[in-house]
Specification:
Number of helices: 17
Shape: globular
CATH architecture of the largest domain: 3-Layer(aba) Sandwich
Structural class: alpha+beta
Radius of gyration: 30 Å
CATH superfamily of the largest domain: DD-peptidase/beta-lactamase superfamily
Number of domains: 2
Length: 530
C-alpha cells in the first residue's frame, strides 16, 4: 500500500474520531430535569423531596449522592445512594470533600477565638500575623479580621492561579501558601466592596495557627470536629488516610469519570475539609440550635447569629462570617447557606432559620459547566419542604460551545495536516527545481501558513482559558479536563502544522537530487564528434 493511501486512511480515521467527539460534545451534556416530575399530594413534602432527588441524581449523572433533612435537633430523613469512586455503596459515613463549605468551619474557629477574647474582629490581621505580606503594603497592615471573614479585604479571587489546589501536605504548608500571597495585588481598597477570595480564608487559617500555636487541622479537630462527634471527617492528610476518602468524579464530555486527587492539608481553611453526611447533620444541628449539639456547646447563640447575619452586599444577597444570606425564590423565606466544590466533589448546606430547617446535599462529582444544576438541588429541596415548586437549572452553554469549537478546529487541523504531509512526501520523492517566481510564492505561502498556525496555537493556549476566570492550562485541566485536553490537542496540532508547512516550504526551495527516471533532471554528457 502506498504511503499516500496509508496517510489518507489514517487522516480519515482521525477525522472520524474527532467528528464523534464533536457529536458527543454537543449531545452528551446533561439536561435540566423537568420541575413537574415532583407532583405529589400536598403535605407529603418529604416524599416529594426524595422523588426530586432521584431525578436530580439522574439529571446530574452523579455516581453517588447523600442528603439529609434536619429540623431542630432531629434528622427527619436522610439517604445515601449510588457508589463511590471505587464502586463501593455509598453510606451515611462515606466522607466527602466539602469545597468552600469548609469556610464556615474556618469562620467558626475564628469566632471561637473572638468569643474567648483572643482575637478582635476589628483589629488588623497583621497584629496576629506580623509576617503577613501582600502586594500592597497598606492592605497587609490595615485589613481587619472582620474584612477577611466577609471578603471585603480587596484581595482578588485566586482560584484560577497557582495559589490554590496545591495539594501541599508537608508541615507548614498553610503558612507557605499565605507567604506566597506576597505578590498578590488588591483589586479594590480595603473595605470598599465584597470580592469573594480563597486568599481571605487562607490568611484566617494561618491566623488561627499563630494565635493558638497549633496547626489549623489540630485546632479544628479539638474544638469543632470532636465536640460535634464528626468521626468520619478529616482536616489533615493523616486523618484523610484514616477515614479513607474515596475517589470522586469529574465530568468528561458530559459523562462521569473517576478522579482521585490527593488530599490538600494546606487548603483545608478554604475548601478541603472532609466530612460524611452523618457528620454534617451534627454540624447543621449545631447551627440551628445556637451553637449547641446535644449537651455540647461549640459557640454562643449570639456569636452563631452574628456568623449567620449578612452584613455586606454580594449583589445576589449578603455575606456574613463564612455564610451567604439570601431569600429563597418562590418561598420568600430567608436562607443562610454555603456551597462548595473540589474538582471531584460537591457539597451544599442550606439553613432556613425561621423554619428551623436545614437541608444537605453532597455528590461525588463536579464540573464547572454543571455548577448551576448541582447548586439548584439544595435550593429546590428547601422549596419543596416549604410547599413550593422546584425550578430547573441548565448547564453552562459556554462549555459546550468552547468544546465544540475546539473539536471542530481539531478536525480542520488534522485534515490540513494530512494534506500538507502528502505534499511534503510528494516533494521529497519527485521534487523539481522551482523557478525564481515559484520560490517567491513559496516563501510567502510558507510564511503565511507557519505564522497562521502559530497564531492559532498561541491564541488557543492564552485566550481560551480567560473564559474560565483567567485559569492557566494546568488549572483548566484540573477543573474542566475535557476543555483542557481539547486545548492541548489543538495547540499540538497547530504547532505540528506550522512545522510541517515550514518543511514543505523549505523543500520547495531546495533542488532534489536527479533520478534515473527523470531524464529532464539528469546530467547530459557531451561526446565530442570525430
Amino acid at each position: 500500500m502506498s504511503g499516500w493511501i496509508r496517510l489518507r486512511r489514517q487522516a480519515g480515521r482521525l477525522v472520524a474520531v474527532a467528528g464523534c467527539l464533536t457529536v458527543l460534545a454537543t449531545t452528551a451534556a446533561p439536561v435540566a430535569a423537568d420541575p413537574l416530575l415532583n407532583r405529589v399530594a400536598p403535605g407529603d413534602e418529604l416524599a416529594a423531596a426524595e422523588d426530586y432527588l432521584r431525578a436530580y441524581q439522574e439529571q446530574t449523572r452523579a455516581p453517588g449522592l447523600a442528603y439529609a433533612v434536619v429540623r431542630g435537633d432531629t434528622v427527619l430523613r436522610s439517604g445515601a445512594w449510588g457508589v463511590d469512586g471505587d464502586g463501593r455503596p455509598m453510606t451515611a459515613q462515606t466522607p466527602f470533600l466539602l469545597g468552600s463549605t469548609s469556610k464556615s468551619f474556618t469562620a467558626l474557629a475564628v469566632a471561637q477565638l473572638v468569643e474567648a477574647g483572643r482575637v478582635d474582629l476589628d483589629t488588623p490581621a497583621a497584629t496576629y500575623l506580623p509576617w503577613l505580606a501582600l502586594g500592597d503594603a497598606h492592605t497587609a497592615r490595615t485589613v481587619t479580621v472582620r474584612q477577611l471573614l466577609t471578603h471585603t479585604s480587596g484581595l482578588p479571587e485566586v482560584w484560577s492561579t497557582g495559589l490554590t489546589d496545591r495539594y501541599d501536605n508537608r508541615p507548614g504548608g498553610l503558612t507557605r501558601s499565605v507567604r506566597d500571597l506576597a505578590t498578590l495585588r488588591p483589586t479594590a481598597a480595603v473595605g470598599q466592596r465584597h470580592e469573594y477570595s480563597d486568599a481571605n480564608y487562607m490568611i484566617l487559617g494561618a491566623l488561627v495557627e499563630d494565635v493558638t500555636g497549633d496547626t489549623f487541622g489540630a485546632y479544628l479537630r479539638r474544638h469543632v470536629l470532636d465536640p460535634l462527634q464528626m468521626t468520619h471527617s478529616a482536616a489533615t492528610v493523616d486523618e484523610a488516610r484514616a477515614v479513607g476518602i474515596p475517589p470522586g468524579h469529574r465530568y468528561y464530555l458530559g459523562q462521569p469519570r473517576r478522579f482521585a486527587a490527593p488530599f490538600d492539608t494546606a487548603g483545608v481553611p478554604y475548601g478541603f475539609l472532609a466530612a460524611s453526611l452523618e457528620d454534617l447533620t451534627h454540624y447543621a444541628i449545631a447551627q440551628l440550635n445556637g451553637g449547641r449539639y446535644g449537651n455540647t456547646r461549640i459557640l454562643g447563640a449570639d456569636r452563631t447569629t452574628q456568623m449567620h447575619t449578612g452584613t455586606v452586599s454580594t449583589g445576589h444577597g449578603s455575606y456574613g462570617f463564612g455564610w451567604r444570606n439570601s431569600t429563597l425564590d418562590g418561598v420568600g423565606t430567608r436562607i443562610v447557606w454555603h456551597a462548595g466544590a473540589t474538582p471531584d466533589y460537591f457539597a451544599h448546606l442550606v439553613l432556613a432559620p425561621e423554619s428551623n430547617l436545614a437541608v444537605i446535599i453532597m455528590t461525588n462529582i463536579y464540573g464547572l459547566p454543571m455548577d448551576a444544576p448541582l447548586s439548584a438541588g439544595a435550593f429546590n429541596l428547601a422549596r419543596i419542604l416549604h410547599g413550593a415548586t422546584p425550578t430547573a437549572a441548565a448547564p453552562d452553554p459556554v462549555h459546550r460551545w468552547a468544546l465544540t469549537g475546539l473539536l471542530g478546529v481539531a478536525v480542520l487541523l488534522i485534515t490540513v495536516l494530512a494534506w500538507s504531509w502528502t505534499r511534503l512526501i510528494r516533494r521529497l520523492r519527485h521534487g523539481t527545481i522551482p523557478p525564481a517566481r515559484s520560490r517567491a510564492r513559496s516563501l510567502i505561502a510558507t510564511t503565511a501558513w507557519t505564522g497562521g498556525s502559530a497564531a492559532v496555537a498561541a491564541g488557543v493556549a492564552w485566550t481560551l482559558p480567560s473564559f474560565w476566570q483567567g485559569a492557566d492550562l494546568a488549572k483548566l485541566q484540573l477543573w474542566a479536563p475535557d476543555i483542557g485536553h481539547a486545548t492541548i490537542a489543538v495547540v499540538a496540532l497547530a504547532i505540528a502544522l506550522a512545522l510541517t508547512r515550514l518543511a514543505v516550504g523549505l523543500s520547495s526551495m531546495v533542488p532534489s537530487r536527479p533520478t534515473a527516471t527523470d531524464p529532464t533532471r539528469s546530467s547530459q554528457v557531451v561526446t565530442p564528434t570525430t
